[in-house]
């Protein structure tokens, strides 16, 4: 059976893609340059796209920055969030490699107030994804321990963790990834040991024993 060839984008669709990419590149250039201000006027000047066109695609700054978040992730090829404890450990080198692809922009997203706001807007979804990925580990330990484990792991698997290890220990991105993998694996292994220890301390009951 012949596979269907997807229809070629129309000229209007191609123009839309080109225009939006120019807008995103303009915003990225502002952030890389260290600008704390993100206004439609500045983005228009940097991108060469008229303000009226900017407003045609993005109703306000929030929608612009929301689109920019997804654009940056695609630009540096951020991997999909993990779905299991094994994937949590395994995805770290690919994640840190993504951060290395455009270090100035990633650092700007960490420290620029607008970049920080966009990251925090996605924090809940990220917490939920990691909670699901690690539920086989966290489901058998006390709730407080589970919360601490998740907080530590998500911090290690992040641009903040990548930046901290590079700056404070002069590690390369690859070295930082190895350090993060080691730490995350150690945390998971420790949680599993605690879980087994708790199970071993549980009193055994005879079948039919009504307690």
How would you portray this structure in words?
It comes from Rhizobium leguminosarum. It holds the Pfam family TetR_N. This is HTH tetR-type domain-containing protein. Residues 39-58 bind DNA. InterPro entries: Homeodomain-like_sf, HTH-type_TetR-like_transc_reg, HTH_TetR. The chain is mainly alpha-helical and 211 residues long. The chain has two domains: 12-60, Arc Repressor Mutant, subunit A, CATH 1.10.10; 76-199. It has helices at 11-32, 40-47, 51-57, 61-75, 85-90, 92-101, 103-111, 113-121, 123-133, 135-138, 143-156, 159-169, 173-201. Helix 7 (103-111) packs across helix 8, helix 9 (123-133) packs across helix 11 (143-156) and helix 12 (159-169) crosses helix 13 (173-201). It starts with 10 loop residues before the first helix and ends in a 10-residue tail after the last helix. The relative contact order is 0.09.
What is this structure, in a nutshell?
This is HTH tetR-type domain-containing protein. By secondary structure, the protein is mainly α. It contains 13 helices and no strands.
């Amino acid at each position: 059976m012949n596979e269907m060839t997807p229809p070629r984008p129309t000229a209007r669709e191609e123009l839309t893609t080109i225009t939006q990419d120019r807008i995103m590149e303009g915003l990225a250039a502002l952030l890389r340059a260290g600008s704390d201000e993100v206004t439609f006027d500045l983005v228009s000047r940097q991108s060469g796209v008229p303000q009226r066109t900017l407003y045609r695609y993005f109703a306000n700054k929030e929608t612009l920055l929301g689109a920019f978040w997804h654009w940056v992730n695609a630009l540096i090829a951020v991997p999909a969030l993990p779905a299991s404890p094994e994937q949590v450990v395994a995805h770290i080198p690919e994640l840190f490699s993504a951060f290395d692809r455009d270090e100035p922009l990633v650092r700007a997203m960490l420290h620029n107030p607008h970049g920080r706001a966009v990251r925090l807007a996605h924090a809940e979804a990220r917490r939920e994804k990691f909670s699901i990925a690690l539920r086989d580990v966290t489901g058998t330990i006390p709730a407080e321990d589970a919360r601490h484990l998740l907080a530590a792991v998500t911090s290690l698997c992040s641009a903040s963790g990548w930046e901290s290890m590079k700056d404070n220990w002069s590690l390369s991105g690859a070295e930082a990834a190895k350090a993060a993998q080691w730490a995350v694996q150690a945390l998971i292994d420790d949680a599993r040991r605690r879980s087994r220890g708790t199970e071993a301390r549980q009193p055994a009951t005879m079948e039919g024993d009504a307690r």
